[in-house]
Design goal:
Radius of gyration: 19 Å
Largest sheet: 6 strands, parallel
Number of helices: 11
Number of strands: 9
Distance between the termini: 39 Å
Shape: globular
Bound molecules: pantoate
Structural class: alpha/beta
Length: 274
């Protein structure tokens, strides 16, 4: 695997390599990321990954400073997954001056759910992804469904800005007990880790009820929030939405149920398509 810390050397290396599939990450790679790398391989001649913890998408009280940085281990895992190129810039390379041009995604998409709890997060995320797209110039980019709202916003960005990139969604990888794999799971204590699959179980329960014909989504959402709260969680939302734009669904829409809740100091998110 070639490792490139600079835009200039990466661009040179990627000239004439054929079809490029790209998987951007913030590192601390787990099996979920690796599954995205394998998926990327099916779409292109070469796979490019990036590792960059993007300050722009963290709020002032969020975990930018303590976000786990595990570069050597990440490189070993990327080599095992036969990734061809890694772009690993430092902050100076990505933001040599304060980033004054930022992308503001549609507020209908950013003021809800994660955007309501994390103001500015999606502008920072979309800005770095657009910049990474300009650097790597991929044909295909793979993003996990675990960050469902991120995937929806990026699919819209690519369409509305006419970027010649196919966005491929990757299924969420789960531990045996159902917990969605996430770099932030490492923050959980042993006791919290045992409790953490409850979020997934509540989403499964809602999905089962809806598939069985239940139409009172609010009732299901309220019950799930109450169960989480009763077990020591601080839920931000559990909500059934339309898949395409994550707005309130109408009859006949394809649905997804999304949840976010804090367990101790750790904020977990998850979702299930229905
Ligand atoms: O999903 C992530 O890890 C990040 O939001 C991304 C897409 C790498 C942008 O920093």
């Amino acid at each position: 695997m070639q490792i490139h810390p600079t835009i200039t050397t990466l661009r040179k290396a990627l000239a004439n390599v054929g079809r490029i599939a790209f998987v951007p990450t913030m590192g601390n790679l787990h099996d979920g990321h690796l599954a995205l790398m394998h998926q990327a391989r099916q779409h292109a001649d070469v796979v490019v990954a990036s590792i960059f913890v993007n300050r722009l998408q963290f709020g002032p009280k969020e975990d930018f400073d303590k976000y786990p940085r595990t570069f050597d281990n990440d490189c070993a895992r990327l080599r095992e997954a036969a990734v061809d190129f890694l772009f690993a810039p430092d902050e100076q390379e990505m933001y040599p001056a304060p980033q004054r041009y930022v992308l503001e995604p549609d507020s209908a998409h950013t003021r809800i759910l994660e955007g309501a709890v994390r103001p500015g997060h999606f502008a920072g995320m979309a800005t770095v992804v657009l910049k990474l797209f300009n650097i790597v110039q991929p044909d295909v980019a793979v993003f996990g469904k675990k960050d469902y709202q991120q995937l929806m916003i990026l699919s819209n960005m690519v369409r509305e800005l006419a970027l010649p990139i196919e966005i491929v969604p990757g299924e969420t990888t789960r531990a045996d007990d159902g917990l969605a794999l996430s770099s932030r799971n490492g923050y959980l204590s042993l006791e919290e880790r045992a409790e953490a699959p409850r979020l997934h179980r509540q989403l499964l329960r809602i999905r089962e009820h809806i598939l069985a014909g239940e139409q009172d989504h609010l009732h299901l959402e309220t019950e799930a929030m109450a169960d989480l709260a009763a077990h020591g969680w601080q839920p931000d939302y559990i909500t059934v939405r339309r898949r395409s734009d994550l707005q309130t669904p109408a009859a006949g829409d394809s649905l997804v149920v999304l949840g976010a809740a804090r367990l101790g100091q750790t904020r977990l998110i998850d979702n299930l398509e229905i």
